[in-house]
Amino acid sequence: MQEILRAAVGKWTTLEEPEFGAGAWPSGLKQEPPLGAHLATSRRGYSHHGVYIGRGWVVHYSGLSEFWQCGPVEEASLSRFANSHPVRIVHHAQLPYSPEEIVRRARSRLGENNYRLLTNNCEHFCNWCLSGVNVSSQVARPLRLTFRVLGALILGRSARRRSFGTASRQEYG
């Protein structure tokens, strides 16, 4: 029965209301996510993020969600959002907005088509909806590493120059 439901779920293309039986949520979820939940699903090399708005629907930035093509903020069925990948809930410690306000914030950006991988991606969108902060850990982590490596190279070079200069002055002083 679950296989039949999963097969049917994958075929939704219109805004019809999905119906799931107990334990039949797609993408590995055991029950309906809470309203306003930050959802994530792993893809090849990155995670895709969306906001759960209830009744089996997610608002997400569809940019790069399928075949590396940019797309707008849209409502999609949970199955379409998951794209046959497991879905997990991203937990946030404290949120300044109620679940209803999170959903309102997500829907307020429907149709926006300003996807930018480094500054306005699907994770930036979700974090903004939930916390008001436009941040992506997927982007921040590699940038921090890059800056650390560059900093170490610059500091290392600078330290070598100082130590070389000090030794030279002492020897020839």
Can you characterise this structure?
Residues 1-17 have low confidence and may be disordered. It is globular, with a radius of gyration of 23 Å. With 173 residues, it is an alpha+beta fold. Helix content is 40%, strand content 17%. It has a 5-stranded antiparallel beta sheet. It folds into 2 domains: 2-135, endopeptidase domain like (from Nostoc punctiforme) (endopeptidase fold (from Nostoc punctiforme), Alpha-Beta Complex); 137-173. It is built from 5 helices and 5 strands; from the N terminus they run H-E-E-E-E-H-E-H-H-H.
User: Roughly what fraction of the amino acids lie in strands?
Assistant: 15-25%
Per CATH, the architecture of the largest domain is Alpha-Beta Complex
Shape: globular
Radius of gyration: 23 Å
**Succession of helices and strands:** HEEEEHEHHH
- Helix content percent band: 25-40%
The total of helices stands at 5
Class computed from helices, strands and strand pairing: alpha+beta
CATH class type of the largest domain: Alpha Beta
The pLDDT mean sits at 76
What is the number of beta strands? 5
- Largest sheet geometry: 5 strands, antiparallel
The order of strands across the largest sheet is 4-3-2-1-5
Which consecutive residue ranges, at least 5 long each, have pLDDT under 50?
1-17
At the fourth CATH level, what is the homologous superfamily of the largest domain? endopeptidase domain like (from Nostoc punctiforme)
CATH topology of the largest domain: endopeptidase fold (from Nostoc punctiforme)
Number of structural domains = 2
Distance between the termini: 87 Å
